[in-house]
Specification:
With about 375 residues, this protein is of the alpha+beta class. It folds into 3 domains: about 90 residues, no CATH class; about 110 residues, Helix Hairpins, CATH 1.10.287.130; about 150 residues, Heat Shock Protein 90, CATH 3.30.565.10. It has a 5-stranded mixed sheet with strand order 6-8-9-11-10.
Amino acid sequence: MTTLPITASGIMPAASTMPTAMDQNRKAISRGSLMAVRKRTMDSAPTIPRESTTLLVTARMTTVVIIVKASSVTPKLEEYSLRFCKAAAPGGQSLVFADISNERATLSALVKNCVLIGVLCFAAFFGISFRLAFWMVQPVEKAWQQQRQFVADASHELKTPLTVIISNAELLQLPEYDEASRACFSGRILASSRQMRGLVERLLELARADREQNGAEHVPINLSELAEYALLPFEPLFFEKDLKLLTEIQPDIEVLGDGQRLQQMIDILLDNAQKYAPSPGIVRFALRRGERRRCLLSVSNACEPVEEEELKNLFRRFYRMDRARSSDGSFGLGLAIAKSIVDEHHGRIWAEWKDGCITFFAEFLA
């Protein structure tokens, strides 16, 4: 069996082993038959050992060079993907064959990888987009739900006094009632009208708090003096209801804020305490410095046990622990307004129940 010698420039056929093949290829090329060149070359080519890697073939008038990858002892040209080039040469024509199977395999692998990466990127992009869209829609959905709840609660609060007003107005038109009954009907209409006015004023305060939350101008305020001034009008109210007011105010505590709005917040907390504290009882008001340049204001009074979830709901609009309280002017908007004021001053407000007392805390930067 004849093999091809390996030289420094590649695998070249030995001159003594190829004369018959060269003569036959010369005749085939002179007739212009490319297929004959390929067939005769392979039929007459010597055996290629397994360890050879490439086989270079050029068809000239005198020589033929073949380049193929050897995968068996006697490979055939048809088993490979080849590219050829036919060119004129000084002594005749040249045919060059190149193996492109590696190129095709690389291209196929590249296409598969690109498709896989594209699918993964699309899936990741879709997942991130869905998550971001859900995250961005949540505040809008929450605001929409709060608006719907607000409209429903406001309608319910307005419905009751309107019903009373309409009913008593119809009774006033009936002739069979005496002057005393008519006076009673008129009194009910007046009371319900005042109740409606109070509700409308609260709604306007809440709307103003929402509107001024980002646009209010804050200046240094002596909160200690403001708290002492806000306590003065409530002392007679606590005395009439047999409530004892205990105060603990540290001097010269200053915060950045709107003095009128901060006083309104203190008024709301004190008014809430005098409405719900049992009589006789004690209401404690404290203002002290806290840690990390903060100050803490607290108002506490005796109260029945309150669940943790219910403590969080106290600052919702129109929320009341006792639904029967609407008749005394309580609409469940006071604490919601207080929360808006505290948020406007970048503070924090919350409620705690401990040892039979409920305490409202408001924390500000001092």
